[in-house]
């Protein structure tokens, strides 16, 4: 993955240094007969990493009487140490990052700095990063070395996850950045071929690389007060729509966007052709021309994204979604290649929460063709003949609310009961508010004849209320359902085990009558309010 155009290092003739990482040590060897640049290997340990359990319990160390450093003590064991508050540690700096780069400059033409983050350190069971940064010393190493080798510093990033490297990208002394993941036992051979121009890399990033964590969902003030202050992001919110995660929903401008990647040449796109109308039950082709406008042979990865203009889900569908791509191999300088992308509309299907199935919506779609999700070179529009989001009948039978919401804010899912889960028949979760103002929305609810609403609810609050609104969380208020706290229940689940859960009850209330299909929103006025199911009541049932 080339993040900036990398100079081909084929004409270096000076004696240089090669650092080889072995399983037990790093060996430095003089190599007078090999033409390679000086190579830096930085530790992949991120000094900002904090191992934790649910963001609260740290990973402690203790020093034995014989001076041994013992890792693995938990908080309770550490606190039992009689002198746990009196342990002092002294930092000894052996060498500042890149401090000998000035000396290396005398004997070397270029420098390669290898940095990154090993997965065994930054991710894993009960291990998470508090931010996206490289270790502080790694960033310092890059900048210090680049200052001594302006325009002749190549940074190699080795990582399995995105990193915040905007400062390195914008360092004027860094000439190129190359990213590669953990690619097997021949990865170093592949890296050398890419660095020396034996191969033109054409990889693409599979996620956005954000500048920082400012666009990620924040912990609530209540949670923030209970955790290590270095953790500010709510890593439990995995809903990309609500949290505005990924290129499909994010408003953030990343350092590198989804699909990004450069190579040793440049390309131009032209002559986009596609049928104006297609059917959802078959594939269709998108054709274009790609010309190599540079001086080197390389592959190119052509990417096609779509956006639905007319979705029943409105602004809650992705802004842009990858629908097809093709790696076009070995395009020579000046060559024009005809490219055909075959698109299956089901690759941009949506989940119909009312019919409980995936389907391709009818309507107009924007087509975007480019080199990445934020580098669009050609656009077009098609009309797809497909299906429509179904109208939901909530009068004949109660429906599980969790299964039928298409948008939510702040809520989480809570298991309704062990007994229901054991049946393996679905409807396992209740929508649960986490704060006042949380909401969920159900699309295309048939409101004809409805004058009341029945909810299957539970709550730990003395008094709870749920507002019923039409068309948006702030739309016309149709009514309010109010109820009291519900008592816990216990029952035998076999094997001598007893389930203890919060009990549910029915809560009903009248609503203003409206006609036709409407998006129906429930707005929670309080914390830990749970809704299992929802049912509309006809006029003769509203008072029951």
From TrEMBL:
Pfam families: CBM_6, Fn3-like, Glyco_hydro_3_C. The keyword Hydrolase applies. One of its GO terms (biological process) is carbohydrate metabolic process. One of its GO terms (molecular function) is beta-glucosidase activity. Residues 394-537 form the CBM6 domain. The keyword DNA-binding does not apply. Keywords: Hydrolase, Signal. It comes from the Bacteria. Belongs to the glycosyl hydrolase 3 family. This is Carbohydrate-binding protein. The lineage of its organism: Bacteria, Bacillati, Bacillota, Bacilli, Bacillales.
């Amino acid at each position: 993955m080339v993040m900036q155009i990398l100079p081909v290092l084929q004409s270096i003739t000076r004696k240089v240094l090669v650092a080889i990482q072995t399983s037990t040590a790093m060996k430095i060897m003089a190599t007078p007969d090999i033409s390679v640049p000086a190579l830096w290997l930085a530790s992949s340990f991120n000094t900002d990493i904090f191992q934790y359990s649910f963001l609260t319990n740290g990973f402690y160390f203790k020093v034995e009487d014989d001076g041994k450093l013992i890792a693995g003590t938990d908080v309770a064991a550490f606190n039992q140490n009689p002198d746990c508050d009196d342990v002092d540690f002294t930092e000894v700096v052996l060498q500042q990052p890149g401090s000998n780069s000035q000396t290396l400059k005398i004997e070397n033409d270029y420098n390669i700095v290898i940095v990154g983050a090993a997965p065994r350190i930054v991710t894993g069971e009960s291990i998470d990063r508090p931010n996206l940064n490289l270790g502080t010393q790694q960033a310092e190493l890059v900048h210090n070395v680049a200052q001594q080798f302006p325009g002749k510093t190549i940074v190699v990033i080795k990582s399995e996850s995105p990193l915040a490297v905007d400062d390195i990208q914008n360092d004027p002394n860094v000439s190129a950045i190359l990213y590669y993941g953990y690619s097997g036992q021949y990865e170093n051979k592949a890296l050398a071929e890419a660095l020396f121009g034996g191969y033109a890399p054409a990889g693409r990033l599979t996620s956005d690389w954000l500048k920082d964590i400012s666009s990620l969902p924040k912990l609530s003030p209540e949670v923030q007060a209970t955790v290590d202050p270095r953790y500010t992001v709510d890593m439990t919110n995995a809903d990309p729509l609500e949290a505005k995660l990924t290129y499909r929903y994010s408003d953030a401008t990343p350092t590198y966007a989804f699909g990004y990647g450069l190579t040793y040449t440049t390309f131009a796109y032209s002559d986009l052709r596609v049928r104006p109308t297609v059917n959802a039950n078959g594939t269709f082709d998108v054709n274009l021309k790609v010309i190599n406008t540079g001086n080197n042979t390389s592959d190119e990865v052509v990417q096609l994204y779509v956006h639905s203009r007319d979705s029943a889900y409105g602004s809650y569908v992705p802004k842009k979604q990858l629908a097809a791509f093709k790696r076009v191999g070995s395009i020579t300088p000046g060559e024009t290649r005809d490219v055909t992308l075959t698109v299956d509309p089901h690759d941009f299907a949506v989940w119909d929460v009312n019919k409980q199935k995936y389907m391709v919506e009818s309507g107009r779609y924007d087509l975007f063709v480019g080199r990445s999700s934020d580098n669009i070179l050609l656009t077009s529009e098609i009309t797809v003949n497909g299906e429509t989001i179904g109208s939901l009948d909530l009068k004949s039978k109660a429906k599980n609310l969790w299964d039928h919401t298409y948008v939510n804010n702040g809520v989480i899912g809570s298991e309704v009961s062990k007994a229901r889960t054991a049946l393996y028949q679905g409807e396992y979760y209740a929508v649960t508010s986490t704060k006042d103002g949380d909401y969920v929305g159900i699309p295309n609810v048939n409101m004809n004849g409805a004058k009341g609403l029945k909810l299957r609810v539970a709550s730990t609050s003395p008094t709870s209320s749920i507002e019923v609104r039409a068309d948006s969380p702030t739309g016309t208020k149709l009514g309010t359902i109010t109820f009291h706290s519900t008592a816990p229940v216990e029952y035998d689940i076999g094997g001598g085990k007893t389930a203890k859960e919060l009990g549910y009850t029915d809560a009903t209330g009248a609503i203003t009558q409206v006609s036709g299909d409407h998006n129906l929103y429930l707005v929670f006025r309080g914390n830990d309010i749970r809704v299992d199911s929802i049912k509309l009541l006809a006029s003769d049932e509203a008072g029951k």
